[in-house]
């Protein structure tokens, strides 16, 4: 169910039940809003078919419209996703081939094709995430829980290697909820914004 929360007084208004997903076995692994265009997307995942799908999402009525099957409909288990100020979509995938662990990918928002950035350095079945961009510093931040259930911590992902570096392990944060309050800045040639 999509709910709008008034940040001034906490009042909740139900927008509606998410409609338009291809399978009743899908669950949402990311609600992303392009920080420049305002377009919103859902990334889903399903245990039944090991696929993730990318949907355009209408925040006014909770309607999801399929944009693409990620990785051409092949195995891809999205754990968390985020869009940066340049419109690039990143997703942590956790299908965990033996000895590999979670990996960071760039996902094409038009056709769902993927480009491997690299290994995160942690094996996790479901709880890489959430992730979000600190747009002022262009850092991808997130939370990681290990496959064993142990809390790894809050940290940043390298956009060139995919590796997750821990910033803090305490206090232990609740996974599957979190965002960075950050806007996109226009950078000028002289370095000022």
| Average residue pLDDT | 82
The Rg value, from CA coordinates, equals 17 Å
Taking the alpha carbons of the first and last residues, their distance comes to: 38 Å
How many strands in all? 14
Largest sheet: 4 strands, antiparallel
| Range of helix content | under 10%
Which structural class is indicated by helix and strand composition?
mainly beta
- What fraction of the residues are assigned to beta strands by DSSP? 35-45%
Shape: globular
By DSSP (H or I, 4+ residues per run), the number of helices equals 0
**Weakly predicted, low-confidence segments:** none
- Strands of the widest sheet, in order across it, are 3-4-5-6
**SSE ordering:** EEEEEEEEEEEEEE
Sequence-ordered SSE layout with sheet pairings:
Layout: E1 2-5, E2 12-16, E3 26-33, E4 40-46, E5 52-58, E6 63-69, E7 78-83, E8 89-93, E9 103-107, E10 114-119, E11 128-134, E12 139-145, E13 151-157, E14 164-168
Antiparallel strand pairs: 1-2, 3-4, 4-5, 5-6, 7-8, 8-9, 9-10, 11-12, 12-13, 13-14
């Amino acid at each position: 169910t999509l709910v709008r929360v008034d940040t001034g007084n906490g009042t909740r208004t139900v927008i509606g039940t998410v409609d338009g997903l291809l399978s009743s076995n899908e669950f949402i692994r990311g609600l992303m809003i392009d920080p420049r265009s305002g377009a919103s997307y859902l990334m889903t995942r399903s245990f039944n078919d090991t696929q993730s799908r990318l949907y355009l999402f209408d925040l006014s009525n909770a309607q999801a419209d399929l944009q693409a099957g990620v990785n051409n409909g092949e195995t891809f288990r999205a754990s968390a996703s985020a869009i940066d100020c340049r419109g690039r979509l990143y997703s942590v995938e956790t299908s965990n081939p033996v000895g590999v662990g979670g990996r960071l990918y760039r996902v094409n928002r038009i056709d769902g094709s993927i480009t491997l950035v690299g290994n995160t350095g942690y094996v996790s079945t479901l709880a890489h995430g959430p992730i979000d961009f600190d747009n002022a510093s262009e850092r991808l931040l997130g939370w990681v829980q290990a496959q064993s259930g142990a809390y790894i911590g809050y940290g940043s992902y390298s956009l060139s290697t995919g590796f997750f570096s821990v910033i803090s392990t305490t206090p232990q944060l609740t996974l599957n909820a979190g965002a960075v309050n950050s806007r996109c800045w226009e950078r000028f040639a002289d370095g000022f914004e």
